[in-house]
Amino acid sequence: MSTSIQIYRARSEPADAWVAWDGDESKDYAYGGCRLVGWRDRMEDVVGVLCSLMHTESAYKNVLINEALRAGAVDDLATALPPGFRDSTVGGGRCVIRPADARYAEILSHPEHPEFRSTVHQVFAALGDLLNEREGRIKLTPDFGKYAGVADLLHEHTPHVLGVHCDAGGCGGKSSYSATGVTAAHHVLADEGVIDAPRTTLIGSAGAMGEDVLTYLQDQGGELAVCDLKYDAGHEAAPDDVRLLPSVSGRFTDEALASGGTVIATTWGNELEHSNLTALAPGTVLLLAHNLAIPSGAGGKELMAEVARADVLALPGQLLTLGGALTSRLEWFSRQSGTTVFDKPLAHRVVSRVVGDWTRRMARPADGHGNAYEALLDVCEAA
């Protein structure tokens, strides 16, 4: 993937925002999410995080979407799709926001704070001006923190924001679309005979995406085990009809990895590299449903090569959770066509088609190395 990254800065009293895009003007636009970073973070570290996320998360996902659309993954839905969507190409974009001090960091991290709205509006006024000056080349979803409606606040300052409320023509919160990607991959792998054991372990089953995946798995039947830090802390009760496994912060437990069958992780990311990979049972299908599940660079390649040597098929988060980026694209072209109420059922069908298409390809990589992560890198870096 050859790009000329361009970076812009939007300054405000509460926080500065840095926005990056891949500089590819042949694309319709560049797209990515936002993230809060620490108020003490050095500028070089902020820019490093920004460029890494733009490349290995946003750009990779959009490459996969671009290629799937080009290959006809959603052609059977053509009559229901908005004009321009099937032929669209989108590049990688990203935004990170660094609060000015500890006080503003506390406010921006807690949407229930009485000063949140007034503070974030100051940040978004500057960010909106930046996006407007770029004339639509960059679009963002401000999905940082825990506030589902934050995209609507940025929408007051710019039209170049995605993930707005469904009644305003937007796709709304993205967790359910990401969950659809995970369940679509599971369904395809079962149909293809790659998943043939009726045993599944779901790590992170009490989270927003985990709850949706749990509902799907319970409907499928079979032997199901779950684990989540919320269960161990007593914050939530595990379902009565499943087996409960222990969980720990920062890694996957040996009990979860040794379960065999299919292991699905809908967690915070970074756990796999700190886990005991020798606990993985040969033949396991491992669905890593987080963008940060695999470290970038050589470390990620080595980690996934080790997993593949254990005869484990592992699908990476960029594939499984591209539903948010894909649905945001559908939102933009729907809004451009004059749609005022977003078609959520259609969006879930689109996500299922695209993730299913790539799951079939990566389950048995054509180049023979048997490593789905390497296959993903081959596709994304060649684009």
TrEMBL record:
Protein name in the entry: Glutamate dehydrogenase
Upper lineage: Bacteria, Bacillati, Actinomycetota, Actinomycetes, Kitasatosporales
